[in-house]
Amino acid sequence: MAAGAAAKLGTVWGWFWECCSSRMGESQSPFPPVLLLLLLLLVALAPQPAASDITNGNNEHLKREHSLIKPYQGVGSSSMPLWDFQGSTMLTSQYIRLTPDEPSKEGSIWNHQPCFLKDWEMHVHFKVHGLGKKSLHGDGFALWYTRDRLMPGPVFGSKDNFHGLAIFLDTYPNDEATERVFPYISVMVNNGSLTYDHSKDGRWTELAGCTADFRNQNHDTFLAVRYSRGRLTVMTDVEDKNEWKNCIDISGVQLPTGYYFGASAGTGDLSDNHDIISMKLFQLMVEHTPEEDNIDWTKIEPSVSFLKSPKDNVDDPTGNFRSGPLTGWKVFLLLLCALLGIIVCAVVGAVVFQKRQERNKRFY
């Protein structure tokens, strides 16, 4: 990101200097090119969609020991290499079905290799579908990176008070007073002390979320989860546009290594088919400082440096929190303030230069 910004700044400065030089030679006011520079800088430094941060899956390192890819091994059996499953989970040649479209089912699938990567990205190809119409379906499924595995429970088929990270893809609004639009994706980080409140759809412990219409689609639906240097990014590709769309972007997230990836789903009185087609984990090649390398990452407690209080979790009509992160804009504003200082210096220099040019012409 820094290299890209520097390159853009260099290009913009070249345009500005060429413009100023030509206009000063014509004894015109320097202010039009300065305004042009400001406009160019706004374009160059405006925050880009977070989709550019998500890998296309080809230029990163696929970790097969943490990936679930067709053709699956062990079809028709109760186990498969590198992955364990339980409950209603059914393995077929085309997908892993966590729950059938039947009431009161729960199932999960878990990688039995702990992940010791500090920086990673998970791409999930999934499908949620069923016969239920309008709001008569549920409940959704969850993606996990947690200390414990194969622990059934009430949170989308897995245990409550977990240690680690959960991404919930919720299809049913239990809180009838909510204004958010479902299906809804949310993120929760837990050190074992927090309880997921189903009656409020996890609102009190949610870090951020977004609406995503992924249910009963006739095309493929994907989710990407990226964790690198304390930044957690969640992207969706559910509109058949073959492009990632920003959903969640949070900084200050601390996750240990040595936890397990998994997926689980649950149904109640209402139901859906919850299918996992693939889970691909990529190692991100990120340089860390010597201090970071000396940390025992297996001992880190799951945490977030800034947690919103429940009173801050106010829904807006779009389903997002008004207090959502604005990290890109904050960086942009800081850079803009610095550049305004440079522009002022450039304007003063241009005015002085023009005055000297006019004074020199008087002697000829």
Automatic annotation (TrEMBL):
It comes from the Eukaryota. GO terms for cellular component: cell surface; COPII-coated ER to Golgi transport vesicle; endoplasmic reticulum membrane; endoplasmic reticulum-Golgi intermediate compartment; extracellular space; Golgi membrane; plasma membrane. The keyword Glycoprotein applies. GO terms for molecular function: D-mannose binding; heat shock protein binding; metal ion binding. Keywords: Disulfide bond, Glycoprotein, Golgi apparatus, Lectin, Membrane, Metal-binding, Signal, Transmembrane, Transmembrane helix. PROSITE patterns: L_LECTIN_LIKE. It is found in: Endomembrane system; Golgi apparatus membrane. Its main location: membrane. The chain crosses the membrane at residues 331-353. InterPro entries: ConA-like_dom_sf, Intracellular_Lectin-GPT, Lectin_leg, VIP36_lectin. Residues 60-284 form the L-type lectin-like domain. It is a single-pass type I membrane protein; Single-pass membrane protein. GO terms for biological process: endoplasmic reticulum to Golgi vesicle-mediated transport; positive regulation of phagocytosis; retrograde vesicle-mediated transport, Golgi to endoplasmic reticulum. Pfam families: Lectin_leg-like (PF03388). PANTHER family: VESICULAR INTEGRAL-MEMBRANE PROTEIN VIP36 (PTHR12223:SF36), VESICULAR MANNOSE-BINDING LECTIN (PTHR12223). This is Lectin, mannose binding 2. It comes from Sarcophilus harrisii (Tasmanian devil). The lineage of its organism: Eukaryota, Metazoa, Chordata, Craniata, Vertebrata. The gene is LMAN2.
